[in-house]
């Protein structure tokens, strides 16, 4: 075994596309999935836009027994996992049950399910609360339901570090591949577009209050004033590179490097940890800054956070030294689902030699970034860096590269 971890299957449920090719076509065409919230009535809230997954009817993809016991978030994750395994050409029931595991990230758990059952408790009493509430709300529920559905009893777990968690989960999956696991299903899917989840997100103070879908989420723009939240994400299949080669699998690329840091407390005067995470991820991949062909940015759309990210990229790559893109301007920030979706976008950029655009943004020149805007850019992409940050100081960076 080489112990290099490669991606052999991907599944996407995103606000601008249900399925890999729908998402990728929309992303390269600059089509956004951000619009008015429809999953609840947001009129009384200061933020009223979201990225909602279109055309998803759970009953068309999942058995009724799962519908009754799962939150909307988990249904999206189950479908993405089904598609990823199918894309990889893997039938879990043909594998030894302890050779395959599931490691996902979560930021919120099943908020919509939990809200409904709490309303039942308050208005009708405990006898009207579903027994499934005991786990449907839980952070680890996506991992559990995917592993149960496919009989995967190998190394499994969940990572909770907000938006950075999606990369942290992929890194943990890579560790298990290096330890000898045959297959790990990994990634992240979140969905908290309900009144309870909305209040929780508003409390963070980072949501845009614009009602214009084209002006609400503008990272690295002088008009940046918060982000638009969204739902969905991506699930991938990771395998050992040699094992994938022996079975003739199609390989999207290698998860070549990873690092994570944590920002110091504000009063210490120490620098943010993002630059260090990027440098350590490059070291882990045994690459130099000049080897990176594109950066998929975290893109917080908060001026002070955008400045930290731009400063880190400039310190590592120089002024305008590498193309930077943020296709999440078409989906919103998907919490734990955002970074895995960016990783898949990076792998597709490598496959198609195309860097997807950052839409609606007029770059603030003071950031000194080579931001890809308006339309995709043709480029011979061999290696990409994906950056993610979580609320409270989490920083993660992953390097993916063309396999072989």
Structural features, described:
This protein is α/β, with parallel strands linked by helices. It is 32% helix and 20% strand. It has 12 helices and 16 strands. The strands form 3 sheets. Strands 1, 2, 5, 6, 7, 8, 9, 10, 11, 13, 15 and 16 form a 12-stranded mixed sheet that branches. Strand 10, helix 11 (303-317) and strand 11 form a beta-alpha-beta unit. The mean pLDDT is 95.
Keywords:
alpha/beta, 2 domains, single chain, two-stranded antiparallel ribbon, twelve-stranded mixed β-sheet, Peroxisomal Thiolase, Chain A, domain 1, 404 residues, 12 helices, 16 strands
Task: Reconstruct the topology from this structure.
Blueprint: E1 5-14, E2 17-18, H1 20-29, E3 34-36, E4 49-51, H2 64-69, H3 72-88, E5 100-105, H4 111-124, H5 133-136, H6 141-150, E6 157-159, H7 165-178, E7 183-190, H8 195-202, E8 232-240, H9 241-246, E9 253-262, H10 274-285, E10 294-296, H11 303-317, E11 323-325, H12 338-352, E12 354-355, E13 370-371, E14 377-378, E15 383-390, E16 394-401
Parallel strand pairs: 5-6, 5-7, 10-11, 10-15, 11-13
Antiparallel strand pairs: 1-2, 1-8, 1-9, 3-4, 7-8, 9-16, 12-14, 15-16
Instruction: Indicate the overall shape.
Output: globular
Give me the CATH architecture of the largest domain, please. Answer: 3-Layer(aba) Sandwich
Please give the radius of gyration in angstroms.
Answer: 20 Å
N-C termini distance? 15 Å
Instruction: Tally the beta strands.
Output: 16
Low-confidence stretches: none
Q: In oligomeric terms, what are we looking at?
A: single chain
CATH topology of the largest domain: Peroxisomal Thiolase, Chain A, domain 1
Give the biggest sheet: 12 strands, mixed
Proportion of beta-strand residues: 15-25%
Mean pLDDT: 95
In CATH terms, the superfamily of the largest domain is: Thiolase/Chalcone synthase
Number of discrete domains: 2
Structural class: alpha/beta
